[in-house]
């Protein structure tokens, strides 16, 4: 008798936990396949420390094949799900197309950068959802500080704007300020000017999701370091020279970091099931109504909050991690292994690392002051990480006694990490074939002087399904954060030797959903 086939789509917090728990519960009684674009699980909460040069990139990645025994890893990105045919279609990193049949399906594709209809943001901002974006930001900030000393626009290059004062944006601003201050101490500017960081949000306070006392702690720490915290303010328009704020001020900058939250991966919109603000509606057992063989969890699922009837659990890493365990138990129960359970959570509190010995933390609802919060925050991350604990602790120790290496590696270019993408975990690569038969042609953003020029994709041309490609969206765009970009003019025919970069899944009308994982 053949073993039942379980396919898990996505290896974020929810997908990884599902795979690991199922591997333990089924004990080779089921064939478990994990479909993911990368071969690692990314521990997102420590990503700001990668951008700030505290942790090396591999420290926050955990090998899937090395930590998930009995789970078959398939590298690829899901292009579509056929619920009636019980198959998942995917495209591998080299452009090959495949299909995975399943008896049980777990949709855990996670989330992508949330876009708002603000002029210029898609062209001039960068998100912070994947490792490529963190690596780009680290190089970019380093480059701006190095160029600022001898440039006429030095003040603009030393100005960094972060939009979104949730967990991610607050940590990026806190760590970024410390990183640029350290560079300034080693290489003082001739005019004595300091780097300027702005943290913007329409919310009335920093970290609106947390207890007010912790919010005040984070706000105080940021302001003491010199971060310009502006609540009730956001970006009205982004241009090549800077950003126009909603209060009417124009801030000259070459850096715009977009951390306003997340929205569910666009893949879930094509499943054809009821949605709640872009998330698949599931029952308390994480099953899709009317499809008992399909489960969804993490940011892709609207999971009823049994502690607050009528609402859904928020899109956070803490919920996604616990969703994964419950989803695994219920999938196993559907195969006759154990009993199923409804998802019910208890708030364990939150931690926000503000750099150095500073943090805001309320474990189990108990607000902690001063250095104790920093110790608890780092201890929590070490306990929560499924691997690399010793390496992370070693990097923290070295960072406390040695100066950081402020160098550019040049591994990720500006056009490799566009804000408008359904694949923030993948850097766009020139010459890589289109992924999937229905992928649309995409243009590449013109890069900055000093980097390799990017070629523009054609605005018209055949697609993989014989139709007409939509116009390239990002041709010859200048972005805050580099030298002024040359105007390349209208889109040109594609270079026959260079194919467009990886295409995202076909655009669908975005259904905004709040969240900050």
Blueprint (SSEs and pairs):
Blueprint: E1 5-9, H1 13-26, E2 31-36, E3 40-42, H2 47-51, E4 61-63, H3 64-67, E5 71-75, E6 77-82, E7 87-91, E8 97-101, E9 104-107, E10 111-113, H4 121-124, H5 131-148, H6 154-157, E11 159-163, H7 167-186, E12 196-201, H8 212-225, E13 228-231, E14 235-238, E15 242-245, E16 250-252, E17 256-258, E18 262-264, E19 275-276, E20 279-281, E21 287-288, E22 291-296, E23 301-302, H9 317-334, E24 351-353, E25 359-361, H10 370-384, H11 389-401
Parallel strand pairs: 1-2, 1-9, 2-5, 9-22, 11-12, 11-17, 12-13, 20-23
Antiparallel strand pairs: 3-4, 6-7, 7-8, 10-18, 14-15, 15-16, 19-20, 21-22, 24-25
Helix pairs in contact: 1-9, 7-8
What is the C-alpha radius of gyration, as a whole number of Å? 23 Å
Number of helices: 11
- pLDDT < 50 runs, ≥5 residues: 433-514
The biggest beta sheet is recorded as: 6 strands, mixed
Strand content: 15-25%
Ends apart, CA distance between termini: 41 Å
The gross shape turns out to be: globular
């Amino acid at each position: 008798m053949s073993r039942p086939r379980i396919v898990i789509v996505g290896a974020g917090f929810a997908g990884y936990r599902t795979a690991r728990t199922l591997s333990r519960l089924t004990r080779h009684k089921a064939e478990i396949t994990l479909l993911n674009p990368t071969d690692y699980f990314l521990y997102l909460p420590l990503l700001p420390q990668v951008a700030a040069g505290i942790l090396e990139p591999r420290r926050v990645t955990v090998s899937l094949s090395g930590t998930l025994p009995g789970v078959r890893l398939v590298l690829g990105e899901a292009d579509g799900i056929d619920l009636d045919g019980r198959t998942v279609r995917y495209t591998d990193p080299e452009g090959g197309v495949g299909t995975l049949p399943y008896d049980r399906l777990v949709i855990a594709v996670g989330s992508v950068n949330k876009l708002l209809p603000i002029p210029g943001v898609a062209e001039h901002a960068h998100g912070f959802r994947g490792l490529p974006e963190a690596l780009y930001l680290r190089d970019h900030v380093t480059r701006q500080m190095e160029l600022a000393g001898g440039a006429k626009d030095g003040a603009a290059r030393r100005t960094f704007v972060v939009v979104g004062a949730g967990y991610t944006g607050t940590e990026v601003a806190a760590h970024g300020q410390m990183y640029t201050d350290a560079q300034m101490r080693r290489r003082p500017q001739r005019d004595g000017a300091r780097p300027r960081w702005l943290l913007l949000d329409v919310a009335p306070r920093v970290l609106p999701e947390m207890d007010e006392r912790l919010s005040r702690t984070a706000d105080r720490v940021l302001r003491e370091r010199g971060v310009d915290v502006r609540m009730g303010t956001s970006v009205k328009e982004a241009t090549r020279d800077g950003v126009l704020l909603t209060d009417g001020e124009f801030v000259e900058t070459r850096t715009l970091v977009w951390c306003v939250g997340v929205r569910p991966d666009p893949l879930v919109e094509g499943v054809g099931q009821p949605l709640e603000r872009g998330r698949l509606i599931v029952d308390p057992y994480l099953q899709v109504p009317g499809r008992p063989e399909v489960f969804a969890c993490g940011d892709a699922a609207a999971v009823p909050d049994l502690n607050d009837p009528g609402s859904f659990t928020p899109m956070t890493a803490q919920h996604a991690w616990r969703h994964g365990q419950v989803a695994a138990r219920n999938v196993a129960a559907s195969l006759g292994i154990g009993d199923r359970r409804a998802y019910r959570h208890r708030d364990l509190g939150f931690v926000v690392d503000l750099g150095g010995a500073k943090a805001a933390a309320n474990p189990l609802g108990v607000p902690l002051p001063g250095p104790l919060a920093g110790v608890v925050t780092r201890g929590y991350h070490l306990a929560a990480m499924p691997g690399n604990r010793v390496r992370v602790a070693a990097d923290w120790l070295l960072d406390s006694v040695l100066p950081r290496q402020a160098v550019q590696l040049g591994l990720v270019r500006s056009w490799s990490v566009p804000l408008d993408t359904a694949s923030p975990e993948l850097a766009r690569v020139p010459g890589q074939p289109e992924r999937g038969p229905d992928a649309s042609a995409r243009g590449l953003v013109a890069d900055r002087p000093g980097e390799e020029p990017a070629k523009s994709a054609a605005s018209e041309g055949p697609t993989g399904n014989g139709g007409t490609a939509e116009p390239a969206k990002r041709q010859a765009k200048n972005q805050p954060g580099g030298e002024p970009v040359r105007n390349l003019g209208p889109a040109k025919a594609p270079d026959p030797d260079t194919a467009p970069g990886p295409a995202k899944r076909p655009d669908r009308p975005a259904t905004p959903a709040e969240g900050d994982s």
